[in-house]
Amino acid sequence: MVCFFNDLLKKKEFEQQIKGQIEQTMKTIKVHFEFFKSRLGGKWDWTSLMGPDKIKVLQHFPITQFILGKRGEDIEKLWRDFYELYVILRKPILTNSEIDNFEIKDIMPYMHVFSKHIPEFLRNLKEKNLSLRLFSTSSIEKKNHNQVRLFFGGTTMGGGIKGKSVVHDIMEFENRQLYYLINNTPQEIQMRNINAEDKENQDSYSPQPNDRHSF
Q: Where is this region: Disordered (predicted)?
């Protein structure tokens, strides 16, 4: 998808015409999507598609409306085939014919595992009444997404200025979150400021990634 959007960004009519057409097409297939200019450098960026939204795009987005000719047809077929592959791998039970479809002779080297090893895995799992969907790594991907979001949402971009690695800062903050959870520590701390006239002003404070606490 990145290559597809980058190709469209190079066209002169992108901002005046293509941008709105793509956003409207995404709206038609019920996917929230928009192009926007990043704060750093002013380059065009777009909404990151995750989970169900990405599946909808692979299944329904009309590539040939934006890239004409055989190239557009090939890209659209690639997206549809990838969607079908996703659906098959998500099935709890596979038929022998569906497994055999993985055994394709004319295939690129980097796809070797799909044609030469996945069928064997599927057959072994089927004998044990299991399926490949049971071995999803979505939870790991979600954790990685949260950590990346924490990094880019903090003030340690570029490595920070404290002499510690970004990974160290992320894990340190995550460790504090686990401590709060295990020890039932409130996520908000009530702070009281008392002025000279003995009037109390309460404000709430939420722990931030770069805060330092000792336990």
A: 196-215
Q: Are 72 and 64 in contact (CB under 8 A)?
A: yes
Q: Is beta strand 200-205 parallel, antiparallel or unpaired with respect to 35-37?
A: unpaired
Per the listing, tokens 């009037």 go with: 199
pTM: 0.49
Identify the DSSP state of 110: G
Amino acid at 115: S
CA–CA distance, 159 with 68 (Å, rounded to integer): 44
The continuous run of DSSP H or E covering 73 comes out as helix 69-89
| Secondary structure of 127-173 as H, E, C letters | HCCCCHHHHCCHHHHHHHHHHHHHHHHCCCHHHCCCCCCHHHHHHHH
Asked if residue 85 and residue 48 are part of one domain, the reply reads yes
* Best CA proximity match to 67, nearest among 22, 122, 112: 22
Whether 61 and 78 share a structural domain:
yes
57 within domain boundaries: yes
My answer on whether 14 and 44 are in the same domain is: yes
- Domain assignment of residue 117, given as a range: 96-136
